[in-house]
């Protein structure tokens, strides 16, 4: 008789966890199927079977060799549309997972790469490059990407240096990040104010955030960084549970070093975010909202919260891009704009439906 | 097991010492209750013992080992801590919250033996019906039990509690103290807790340590320490102390 109730609780706990894993796997499969469907959308008509054939042709090398029917459609699918879907998945995953990690280590539900100034810094770097750069390299797309990446890293180095002076406290990081967000926004506005009209248009276009023109090289670069950083964050899920559950003193009494965890998670989040937004431009909302949508679905245990946030973020960006691409076709509305229009009502409806009325 | 606090002093700056020359010993199975007015360094002393703060001078040893030389994980395996108040923005359910107590053993992944300990504690602390409840949806007394469970999940030799009864109703105050002092006896744990209630102290403490102006004012058995003179000199309050069922009973007198 002894332990029967506790045995039942344990069985229920294990069963709940198994269910979450199954739901996660199903969600990933649904996400990939949706991704393949979204590939069919665009100005040039393509069917689902063409998408599957194109991927087959890509794998067996016939696209490279330029042989076979429907080669033009295949090239559109493999070289233009698939990278776009892939970057949506990578960006959604990177921004959401960095949002989860930052929210945990700062114990603040309002924190994301956007509120912490990383996006503003990247926009500033890109604006500097677009408006002032001279020389072929800096004026190229790669030059803009590198400037945006460098500015984002620089911003976080400043946040880290200031916060480290006073012990890497959660509040210090958040307040410094918010202050720098305003600072870099002001710098970007100043540049825009003095920029020539055609350069101003390019700066504004960059800050919209779009997947237009994504190539496989972009996906590979961001993808590798996002994957490595996400794995490091996932491996530390228990530490994130502790960091999110109590103040630094409680975390210390559990045998952990909160300052070290905060520094590592912060570095991973910044690298991921910089690796994404340098290619896509500013996408502000997903890093904040996708973690909260995932919280409402699976709770605050980071073992499940991290992968569910990644899938939620990827789905949100893929769907937003598909809507942006088709709703006013042939005009493509940047994903950074659509994601807010799609995400806000979804988020608000989830808040209203949530049992506790809070996150 | 014995915890020895040897001539410990602490100050944030040179002008004001928060703790001065504090010395005492806590043995296993023993409950020491820490008393004193606000601002006399009770919480600071708890934090020094827990290695959250480092004393300016003196040393604290567990079984002869200086905690200053121990890593946070080593301290966590010896000392469990129950905070006075914990602000939980991203709260989890009771099971996952108690699992936090196993981090110093589990490393990066909860193992089967960690789950064994956690589910065993859920039963022992009578938390079965709350197991899947989010801790933010629980009452103060229920949450207190969860935080005691986290500390016990660390399988410590000592438990430190910071005013564990301060926000609880009478029944929960007695339940918590009964639970903790029973654990001290049955599991042979050393218990060191700060508290304000003199009568509960008299009922449950094996020894009482009273701080006044950063120093130890008195240390000993409750009936020896809880006197009218102590109440008057430490708290500036007049009281009548009588003995009821063998325990000192403090009745305050209005000015």
What does this structure look like?
The complex is a heterodimer of chains A (359) and B (255). Chain A has 16 helices and no strands. Chain A has 359 residues and is an all-alpha fold. Chain B contains 10 helices and 12 strands. Chain B has a 6-stranded mixed β-sheet with strand order 6-7-8-3-9-10, with helices on both faces. A 4-stranded antiparallel β-sheet of chain B has the order 2-1-4-5, with helices on one face. In chain B, helix 6 packs parallel to helix 7. Chain B has 255 residues and is an alpha/beta fold. The mean pLDDT of chain B is 91. At the A-B interface, helix 1, helix 11 and helix 12 of A face helix 2, strand 6, helix 3, helix 4 and helix 5 of B.
List keywords for this structure.
heterodimer, A: about 350 residues, mainly alpha, 16 helices, about 80% helix, about 0% strand, globular, B: about 260 residues, alpha/beta, 10 helices, about 25% strand
Query: Structural class, from helix and strand content of chain A?
Result: mainly alpha
Overall mean pLDDT of chain A stands at 87
Query: Ends of chain A: how far apart?
Result: 39 Å
Largest sheet of chain B: 6 strands, mixed
User: In which order are the strands of the major sheet of chain B placed?
Assistant: 6-7-8-3-9-10
Element-level helix/strand string of chain B:
EEEHEEHEHHHHEHEHEEHHEE
Largest sheet of chain A: none
> Which strand-content bin applies to the residues of chain B?
25-35%
Shape of chain B: globular
Q: Kindly provide the radius of gyration of chain B, computed on alpha-carbon positions and rounded to a whole number of angstroms.
A: 18 Å
Number of helices of chain A: 16
Strand segment count of chain B = 12
What class would the helix/strand composition of chain B place it in?
alpha/beta
For the terminal residues of chain B, how far apart are their CA atoms? 45 Å
Number of strands of chain A: 0
Mean pLDDT over the full residue set of chain B:
91
Low-confidence stretches of chain B: none
Secondary-structure element order of chain A, N to C: HHHHHHHHHHHHHHHH
The percent of residues in helical segments of chain B reads 25-40%
Biggest interface reads: A-B, 37 and 48 residues
Number of H/I helices of chain B: 10
């Amino acid at each position: 008789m002894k332990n029967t109730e506790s045995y039942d609780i344990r069985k229920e706990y294990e069963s709940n966890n198994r269910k979450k894993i199954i739901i996660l796997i199903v969600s990933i499969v649904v996400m990939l199927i949706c991704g393949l469907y979204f590939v069919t959308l665009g100005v040039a008509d393509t069917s689902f079977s063409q998408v599957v054939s194109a991927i087959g042709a890509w794998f067996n090398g016939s696209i490279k060799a330029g042989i076979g029917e429907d080669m033009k459609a295949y090239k559109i699918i493999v070289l233009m549309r698939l990278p776009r879907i892939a970057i949506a998945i990578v960006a959604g995953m990177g921004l959401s997972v960095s949002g989860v990690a930052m929210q945990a280590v700062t114990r603040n539900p309002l924190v994301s790469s956007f509120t912490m100034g990383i996006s503003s810094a990247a926009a500033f770097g890109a604006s500097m490059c677009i408006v002032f750069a001279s020389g072929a390299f800096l004026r190229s797309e790669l030059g803009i990407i590198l400037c945006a990446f460098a500015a984002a890293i620089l911003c976080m180095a400043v946040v880290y240096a200031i916060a480290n002076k006073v012990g890497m406290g959660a509040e210090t990081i958040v307040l410094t990040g918010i202050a720098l967000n305003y600072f870099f926004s002001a710098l970007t506005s100043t540049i825009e104010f003095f920029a020539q009209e055609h350069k101003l248009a390019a700066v504004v276009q960059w800050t919209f955030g779009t997947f237009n023109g994504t190539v496989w090289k972009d996906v590979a670069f961001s993808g590798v960084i996002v994957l490595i950083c996400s794995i490091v964050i996932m491996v530390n899920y228990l530490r994130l549970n502790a960091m999110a559950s109590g103040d630094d003193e409680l975390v210390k009494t559990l045998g952990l070093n909160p300052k070290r965890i905060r520094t590592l998670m912060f570095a991973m989040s910044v690298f991921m975010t910089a690796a994404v937004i340098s290619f896509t431009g500013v996408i502000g909302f997903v890093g904040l909202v996708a973690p909260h949508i995932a919280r409402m679905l699976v709770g605050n245990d980071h073992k499940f919260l991290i992968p569910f946030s990644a899938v939620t973020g990827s789905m949100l960006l893929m769907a937003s891009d598909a809507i942006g691409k088709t709703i006013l076709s042939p005009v493509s509305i940047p994903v950074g704009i659509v994601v807010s229009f799609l995400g806000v009502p979804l988020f608000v409806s989830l808040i209203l439906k949530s049992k506790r009325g809070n996150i | 097991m014995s915890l020895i606090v040897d001539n410990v002093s602490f100050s944030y700056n040179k002008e004001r010492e928060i703790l001065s020359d504090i010395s005492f010993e806590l043995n296993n199975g023993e409950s020491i209750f820490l008393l004193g007015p606000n601002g006399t360094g009770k919480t600071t002393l708890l934090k020094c013992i827990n290695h959250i703060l480092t004393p300016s001078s003196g040393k604290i040893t567990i079984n002869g080992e200086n905690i200053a030389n121990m890593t946070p994980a080593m301290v966590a395996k010896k000392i469990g801590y129950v905070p006075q108040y914990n602000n939980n923005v991203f709260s989890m359910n009771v099971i996952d919250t108690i699992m936090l107590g196993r981090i110093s053993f589990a490393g990066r992944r909860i193992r089967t033996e960690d789950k064994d300990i956690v589910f065993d504690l859920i039963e022992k602390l009578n938390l079965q019906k709350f197991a899947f409840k989010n801790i933010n949806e629980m009452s103060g007394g229920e949450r207190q039990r969860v935080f005691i469970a986290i500390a016990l999940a660390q399988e410590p030799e000592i438990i430190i509690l910071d005013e564990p009864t301060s926000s609880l109703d009478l029944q929960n105050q007695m339940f918590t103290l009964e639970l903790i002092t029973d654990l001290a006896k049955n599991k042979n744990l050393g218990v060191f807790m700060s508290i304000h209630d003199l009568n509960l102290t008299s009922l449950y403490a094996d020894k009482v340590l009273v701080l006044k102006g950063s120093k130890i004012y008195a240390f000993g058995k409750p009936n020896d320490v809880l006197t009218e003179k102590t109440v008057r000199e430490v708290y500036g309050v007049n009281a009548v102390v009588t003995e009821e069922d063998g325990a000192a009973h403090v009745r305050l007198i209005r000015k």
